[in-house]
Amino acid sequence: MFLKGKTALVTGSTSGIGLAYAKALAGAGANVVINGFGDPADIEKERAGLERDHGVRALYSGADLTRPDEIEAMMKAAADAFGAVDILINNAGTQHVAPVDQFPVEKWDLIIALNLTAAFHATRLAVPGMRAKKWGRIISTASAHSLVASPNKSAYVAAKHGIAGFTKTVALETATDGITVNCISPGYVWTPLVENQIPDTMKTRGLTREQVMNDVLLAAQPTKQFVQPEQVAALALFLCKDEAAAITGANLSIDGGWTAA
């Protein structure tokens, strides 16, 4: 319970990697603020489960992270409830796939707003409180696509490369303030979002489930194993420890060897 008394805010945390972050942080004693969209009953079940299973307080914010005013309201609500945000995990994101000359402008704007600009707003609002306490952890979910590119993903790759650069800059700005700023770059992670893509891909390409998993989704991962959300969360949890205080400005890959080639 090394995070007892601390507060963590995780964006995009009603499912998948974000929810795994929230569970790991709550398991270490942190109060948590979760955020994201989804079925209200499912979200409340997860929020209540965090409190029940870990003996912490858990709040939910439905802030739309494409709106700076709603991010400000979310950060203020967290500070009002818990005093400050000690750990910020910028995790919310979305994806769209299309060639650049066919990429819908509104999709580009959405991806940049949610995957990159939202991290800027949450971070700028979190840093003053962390500076005041001389302790803070800022972690952003980047991607293997923060290091390498794939065709038809111009907005996502641009946003994730942006997250990597943003992380380095803020790490330098806060290096003497007791704050560390890092990003984690997963490869393909086994989440409901990924699993739900498999049937459509099987149908459109005439492939078996195993072929889709190994030859399409895991084509770039030498281990031929999906990263698990809990593995990503465990890395984030380590970054919150005092033993990780010298790790800042880092982009940490957890991608089954994808970016080793």
From TrEMBL:
It is an enzyme of class 1 (oxidoreductase). Keywords: Oxidoreductase. One of its GO terms (biological process) is monocarboxylic acid metabolic process. GO terms for molecular function: 3-hydroxybutyrate dehydrogenase activity. Its EC number is 1.1.1.30. Coiled coil: none annotated. Belongs to the short-chain dehydrogenases/reductases (SDR) family. This is 3-hydroxybutyrate dehydrogenase. It comes from Allosphingosinicella ginsenosidimutans.
